[in-house]
Amino acid sequence: MKPTALITGASGGIGYELAHLFAKAGYELIIVARSEIKLQQLKTELNDHPVTVIAEDLSHPNGAENVYHKVKEEGKTVEVLVNNAGFGLNGAFEELSLKEQKNMLQVNVHALTELTHYFLPDMKKAPFLNIPKGVLNVASVAAFQPGPRMAVYYASKAYVLSFTEALREELRGTGLTVSTLCPGATDTNFFKNANAEETKLVKRTMTPKDVANEGFLGFIKGKRVIIPGTLNRSMAVSTKLIPRSVAAKLAHYMDS
Ligand SMILES: NC(=O)c1ccc[n+]([C@@H]2O[C@H](COP(=O)([O-])OP(=O)(O)OC[C@H]3O[C@@H](n4cnc5c(N)ncnc54)[C@H](OP(=O)(O)O)[C@@H]3O)[C@@H](O)[C@H]2O)c1
């Protein structure tokens, strides 16, 4: 029997690349996103590899619960949970739609938290000892600072980082790996969907393949926080050295 990795947001970008890497490493896949067509395409690309497709909108308050029940109906257990689905919204907080910002919190924060809560008991019981099991949560370098004009997005990623680091400590000694992946700007649909294509943030992007590679290897090695790319790592370090008020000003400049 193969261990199973459930990956949210696998229909494109970083999640799509992570799905390929976990499949190559021998994990059976459960892939989740809204776009069933794209998920089915990924399944086809992976040929005979065992893949279960779950088309679900995680911005729906019952989205995470529905995913859990569908996994149980399929008789599957989850040994690795990759909470990657997420999106951003660019604009002044008061001008962005409240409904859309609540949807963003539902996907980036609530669904991630709920899925982790649902699947942890399975993971702890899972018998696979020679292959990593646990949780890989996708935050962002945005987690390290306040982000004017993407205020709720940055705050959601600060939650993901804090939550995941705390969980890692709670689960020390259980055999589970708990890691946070903090990508910098990556060439995916993220900026288009966030209405941030015209900002300076898109000037230096990494490929989703390179980000996923570093994320996957970091998780396999049991790293606490994985920041792909030398430039992103040095920027994350310098962010810690400057006052948060200055970091907020810099983030505001980058968003213009
Ligand atoms: N790209 C960057 O610069 C960057 C930087 C730092 C962190 N990140 C983080 O990396 C993660 C992946 O983003 P990406 O860059 O790969 O962007 P992407 O190409 O837009 O992929 C986002 C994924 O999330 C899924 N998703 C979005 N809303 C969803 C919903 N309501 N329900 C279920 N699935 C949903 C999308 O699938 P469907 O549309 O089919 O639902 C897609 O598979 C996100 O958490 C993002 O915040 C990205």
UniProtKB/TrEMBL annotation:
Q: Which InterPro entries match?
A: NAD(P)-bd_dom_sf (IPR036291), SDR_fam (IPR002347)
Q: Which superkingdom does the taxonomy of this entry point to?
A: Bacteria
Q: Name one GO molecular function term.
A: oxidoreductase activity
Q: Does the keyword Endoplasmic reticulum apply?
A: no
Keyword terms: Oxidoreductase
Answer whether the UniProt record assigns the keyword Signal to this protein.
no
Record-stated family: Belongs to the short-chain dehydrogenases/reductases (SDR) family.
Write down what this protein is called.
Short-chain dehydrogenase
| Gene name of this polypeptide | dltE
